[in-house]
Amino acid sequence: MKRIIFLDVDGVLNHHKTAHRVDPETADDGPGFRGMSPECVKNLQTLIEKSGAQVVLSSTWRKEPYGLDNTERVARRQGFKGPRWIDITPTLYQGFRELERGHEIQAWLDEHLKKDEPSEFSIIDDDSDMVHLLPRLVQTDPYNGGLTEAKVAEALKLFGIET
Ligand SMILES: [Mg+2]
Predict the structure, then answer these.
(1) With bands split at pLDDT 50, 70 and 90, how would you rate the model's confidence at 17?
(2) How far is the CA of 59 from the centre of ligand 1 (A)?
């Protein structure tokens, strides 16, 4: 079974105690560095190891100046061990308005998942603009620890893995 996690960063890998605060260890990640919580990154690692899921970055961090590699590098500095994240979702507009994240995730699924290959996915995000994909969302709370152990258990349950 191929499993994909669509990963947001702000409010997931960081939370109100770490976001927008420069960590001295990672200050050279550049101006505007918003930081990640080692605790949240550890929880992501656990989720990946228990599910075997691959990560597709759906966060605004996928855009300049971060991008996939820089964002993963920041996670590695906070303890992420791998495997490498595989891709980013496309950025889609209707006129000048960026489409809801759910549509961008759907576009990625349409392009990359083969119809005859068994697969499942979850979305980990503190926002809920997932439109028809809402049932696959594990919504984190940026004011309550972001990606906590409880949220990892929720995501595993979505994949049919009991903890
Ligand atoms: Mg967010």
Answers:
(1) confident
(2) 7
Going from the Cα of 146 to the center of ligand 1, the distance in angstroms, rounded, reads 9
**Domain region containing 150:** 2-158
Whether 14 maps to a domain, the answer reads yes
Q: Is residue 163 part of a domain?
A: no
Task: Give the count of domains, the chain.
Answer: 1
> Which CATH number characterizes residue 123's domain?
3.40.50
Query: Would you say residue 102 lies in a domain?
Result: yes
The rounded Å distance from CA 11 to ligand 1 centre is 5
pLDDT attached to residue 32: 47
User: Ligand 1 centre from 12 Cα, in Å?
Assistant: 6
CA of 63 to the centre of ligand 1 (A): 14
Q: In this predicted model, what pLDDT tens digit does every residue of 19-32 receive, in sequence order?
A: 655 555 554 554 44
Three-state DSSP state, 119: strand
Indicate the pTM of the whole model. Answer: 0.92
